[in-house]
Amino acid sequence: MQTKEKKSINYYMRSLHRDIGFFVIGLTIIYGLSGILLIYRETGFLKTEKHIEEKLNPNIPESELGMVLHMKNFEVTKTDGDIVYFQNGTYNQATGIANYSEKTLPDFFDKLNKLHKASSRSIVHWFTTLFGVSLLFLAISSFWMYKPKTKMFRRGIILAGSGFVLSIILLFL
Question: 53 and 99 in contact (C-beta within 8 Å)?
Fold first, then answer.
């Protein structure tokens, strides 16, 4: 009769690290791409202009118009009678019609960004939270890839410490 060999914590951590790593590869690529797009969100990179005509309530005060239209850095440039002019558009206070243009990403890339920016109100937040926890596990479990006291383990500690210090420095720039 053979006795089962007891497997070490290193064995289980390496196995989990491998399997979870393969599981999150697709989402990691999506998050990487959408993260790059988010860096350039204030530029015209990959964006096309889209004309929008929107029916709003009439007589919205100029001070609230930007919030109603969900526009950042909203600024009224002039008012001529019932027509309020703002960057890339107009709003007719009498009819409530707003005509403006905005630059948007193609639908696929817009969906990537919305996944990246998911809030707790979104149904996908459970999946994105699981992804974050998985990445945290992958980071921590990497310390079980090599046995302590080996050259590779010490190298890993030095690289991890360097990455941590660099991240702290970037926070203060």
Answer: yes
Q: Is the dihedral of CA 16, 19, 21, 26 positive or negative?
A: negative
Average pLDDT (41-51) is 92
Angle at 62 between CA 66 and CA 53, to 5 degrees: 55
Cα–Cα distance for residue pair 48/104, rounded to 1 Å: 6
Q: Read out DSSP for 90-127?
A: EEETTT-EEEEEEEE--HHHHHHHHHHT--TTSTTHHH
E strands of the chain, at which residues?
Answer: 48-55, 76-80, 83-86, 89-92, 97-104
| Co-location of 126 and 166 in the same domain | yes
Phi first, then psi: give them for residue 104, nearest 5 degrees: -130, 155
pTM (2 d.p.): 0.70
Does 147 share its domain with 112?
A: yes
Q: Are residues 37 and 76 in the same domain?
A: no
